From TrEMBL:
Matching InterPro entries: ATP-dep_Glu-Cys_Ligase-2, CP_ATPgrasp_2, DUF403
Circularly permuted ATP-grasp type domain: residues covered: 84-463
Domain named DUF403: residues: 512-811
PANTHER family: BLR2978 PROTEIN, BLR5612 PROTEIN
Name of the protein: Uncharacterized protein
């Protein structure tokens, strides 16, 4: 018998569980044959390239998943195996039909539970099972959503038993996750195997997302004009925030938090720069009880007060409906076959794994009698318990589990332990090899006016290790792309959307939420702040490396370092070096470059759906540079190299803002943030340089201001104060000059005022701008000029006041009086 490939030596086919790829040892199933042949041809030496490409794309795209309690937090990279889970067309048709039937069944069930409740009064469901769980929201009773659709998106978790049959493990009906990750997996994996992707005729995902987007518009209430849809997120610290931002950008929906929305006169409105814009559809990623603190959890700061009342009045569609979480109890599983017969007059196509709800006395006793072969869980998501595997318990453990269940039997269920199917994953350490992992499949169905449509693929989830029995991303599990192959694409790109007319054209970004614009404003400020800190630190550390003793000009550099919060005092050269190096790499130091990059990254993370892929890659490269190349303590040479890289990346970010963004109000505020921040830094730098001894060389000031090349090309001589101050203050062609900043700020303020009305601090700032222009160059452009120093001080203060006034006027919505209905 031929020896297996070394990379296959750890993949043992045992025949006890269904293997997705192999039907016998080293014998691939027909639909996996092409992939297996590709692996045999390439060999493990080529896998390093696959790993590196997956890592690069996940890093560049910023694909993250927050494992709570993990040290990496929200920056933890998404775990993706390069090998897809492949499902043949004939098998997929069965899964698709079962998922479509399940969605219809659940829609009927939730409609009855919040409507006539015939299922409860006629004994089809125990009232205790429904009315006794926190997920049943009484304020939602009697509310009928538009066109009777309660479930707009359903996620069903499937697992395959040893005989090859698919079983339902659980359902997600509140705010199902995974759609965005499934799409991102596809974007990455399809590029790894482009030839295989084409040869297997893998069905595309884009038509499904177009259907989802258009169906929401078609189901929206009050459709006289354009439909405004938003995606409601708990915020950037949620475990799946990347997905929220990615889906919002892909579908073209504004990503909003609860504070971005308000309820007025029974309708939901988005707070925008122009005022309040009416919202017809909310795709929520919040669980039911967090959505409205007035009617559900009073301690929730994530939701929208009054949202339930707007739903009652039929003014807004919330997908999925509030209260749909009642269907997520696994205890429903045993009742579904009978409910399917009653409500649909059909047999249930794909049953759940055998389930015993302990709230039924007979099921309770039966479950405890076979405790060693079952898995015990909480009956509802709110009851955080388990899973507890009976086979792991000794006699004392069994007694303790039985006692716990007996105390509140309605809160527990037991399920048959299924030996999940296995799929191959590529492991990179210590040597590349193929290993088996337990795998499950999450499929998605969306409602349209003509019925449910199932995504041709899904999200495959894999266990973290070979002996792990629970599929959970929170427990370190991974994921796979899912390829449904062997048929034509089927669906057209768009099913429901009406053609765009002249009246539908949009050319203004004034509908941006105030929070997004505020983040853009601060993104501009943090970008500029990072840039000028990096430039200052590079100049200062270069001077330290160049001179054995501090030159006269060091007084100005040190004073500016103190104003920037990098140096407590001048001190000796060793102490200054230490302070500056910490100013590069110490994240815990408020004024450091590392801290500013962290602020910039966090702000950018909240703008994830607004940033282009290239912009995001540059931002991530800046963070990655700091994380990978800034150990503490950092060497002088290492710090200067890092600062070179940081300055280059900041210039790239500025280039995207200058040449890659639409000139809408969001861009105006971003540009204002940059100019205000640069104006404040430049005035600081000039004022501190003017304190140097008169014989000190101001060349460092030109370097910090990125103006040394211009000066040398004009004067070809040692820098002199008159020429330096003229270049850095009044030269309108110098993008680092003060007049350039004040003129640009005035221009942006005029544009904003034309769109949004008068700006409170505009007049005061223009006074300082005119004072700057009125300076007598011959008399005042010298380092000892009191008039120049006072003018710079007032200008610096005016810039800070302007920034504060902009925030108060446009981002707080105090005294909001502007209303926009379309």
């Amino acid at each position: 018998m031929a020896q297996p490939e070394p990379w296959l030596a750890h993949y043992h086919y045992d025949g006890l569980r269904y293997d997705e790829m192999f039907r016998a040892q080293n014998e691939a199933r027909p639909h996996y044959a092409a992939l297996y042949a590709h692996l045999l041809q390439e060999g493990s030496k080529q896998w390093r390239g696959l790993f590196n490409e997956v890592d690069r794309q996940i890093r560049d795209h910023g694909v993250t998943y927050n494992i709570y309690g993990d040290s990496e937090g929200a920056s933890r990279p998404w775990m993706l195996d390069p090998l897809p889970l492949i499902i043949p067309a004939d098998e997929w048709r069965q899964i698709e039909e079962a998922a479509r039937q399940r969605a219809r069944l659940f829609n009927h069930i939730v409609s009855d539970l919040y409507g006539q409740q015939n299922l409860l009064t006629q004994g089809q469901l125990p009232p205790t099972l429904i009315l006794g769980q926190p997920a049943f929201l009484r304020p939602a009773a009697g509310v009928t959503p538009p066109q009777g659709v309660y479930l707009h998106l359903l996620a069903v978790d499937l697992a395959r038993s040893p005989d090859g049959r698919w079983w339902v493990i659980s359902d997600r009906t509140q705010a199902p996750s995974g759609l965005g990750y499934a799409l991102e997996n596809r974007l990455i994996v399809s590029r790894l195997f482009p030839d295989l992707f084409q040869r297997l005729r893998v069905r595309r995902l884009a038509p499904f997302f177009a259907t989802f987007r258009d169906a929401l518009s078609a189901l929206a209430p009050n459709r006289e004009g354009p439909t405004h849809t938003v995606l409601l997120t708990p915020g950037p610290y949620n475990e799946t925030y990347f997905e929220h931002a990615f889906l919002a950008r892909y579908l073209g929906f504004p990503l909003v938090e609860g504070s971005d929305l308000t309820v007025r006169d029974g309708a939901v409105w988005l707070k925008t720069l122009l005022g309040l814009r009416k919202i017809q559809v909310i795709v929520r990623r919040l669980d039911d009880d967090f959505c409205d603190p007035l009617e559900f959890r009073a301690d929730s700061t994530l939701g929208v007060p009054g949202l339930m009342e707007a739903v009652r009045r039929g003014q807004v569609l919330v997908a999925n409906v509030l209260g749909s979480g009642v269907l997520e109890t696994g205890a429903l599983a045993g009742f579904l076959p009978g409910l399917c017969e009653k409500l649909l007059q059909e047999s249930l196509l794909m049953p759940n794994v055998a389930t015993w709800w302990c709230g039924e006395p007979s099921a309770h006793q039966e479950a405890l009698s076979q405790i060693h072969r079952l898995v015990f869980k909480g009956a509802t998501p709110q009851r955080r318990f388990g899973p507890i595997f009976g086979e792991d318990l000794d006699a004392a453990g069994c007694r303790q589990l039985a006692t716990t269940v007996n105390e509140a039997p309605t809160e527990f269920l037991a399920q048959e332990l299924v030996a999940l199917s296995r799929a191959p994953v590529l492991k990179r350490h210590p040597e590349p090899r193929l290993e088996p992992r337990s795998v499950g499949l999450r499929v998605f169905a969306v409602a349209t006016p003509s019925g449910y449509v199932v995504m041709p693929g899904g999200l495959a989830r894999t266990a973290s290790e070979q002996d792990v029995r629970v599929l959970s991303n929170q427990r370190g599990g991974g994921s796979k792309d899912v390829w449904v192959c062997g048929e034509s694409l089927g669906l057209p790109l768009s099913l429901l959307q009406r053609p765009v007319g002249v009246g539908d054209l949009v050319r203004s970004g004034a509908g941006l939420s105030s929070r997004v614009v505020e983040n853009l404003f601060w993104f501009g400020r943090y970008t500029e702040r990072t840039d000028h800190l990096a430039r200052y630190l590079r100049v200062a550390l270069s001077r330290i490396a160049e001179y054995a003793e501090a030159p006269l000009e060091w007084a100005g550099l040190a004073a500016l370092g103190g104003r920037l919060g990098l140096l407590a005092d001048a001190g000796d050269q060793a102490r200054m070096t230490t302070g500056l190096l910490n100013g590069v790499a110490d994240k815990n130091r408020p004024g450091s470059l590392a801290a500013q990059i962290l602020h910039l990254s966090r702000t950018g993370f909240q703008l994830r759906e607004r940033l282009s892929a290239d912009n995001w890659r540059t931002l991530h490269a800046l963070s990655y540079t700091l994380e990978q190349q800034a150990p503490i303590p950092i060497s002088l040479l290492g710090a200067i190299g890092l600062l070179d890289r940081a300055v280059s990346l900041c210039m790239t970010l500025s280039g995207f803002a200058l040449d890659g963004m639409t000139r809408d109000p969001g861009w105006l505020f971003l540009a204002l943030g940059r100019r205000i921040e640069r104006l404040q830094f430049q005035t600081q730098a000039i004022m501190e340089a003017m304190k140097m001894p008169s014989e000190a060389n101001p060349e460092w000031l030109l370097e910090v201001s990125d103006s040394i090349v211009t000066y040398r090309s004009r004067y070809m001589a040692r820098p002199e104060w008159l020429a330096v101050l003229d270049l850095l203050i009044t030269d309108e062609s110098n993008p680092r000059g003060l007049v350039f900043q004040t003129t640009s700020i005035g221009h942006y303020l005029e544009q904003i005022a034309a769109l949004l009305g008068p700006i409170r601090a505009q007049a005061d700032f223009q006074v300082q701008h005119r004072a700057l222009l009125a300076l007598d160059i011959g008399q005042e452009f010298r380092p000892d000029s009191v008039v120049l120093r006072e003018t710079l001080h007032y200008l610096h203060t005016a810039a800070g006041v302007l920034a504060d006034q902009l925030s108060l006027q446009f981002f707080s919505h105090v005294g909001q009086s502007v209303w926009v209905s379309a």
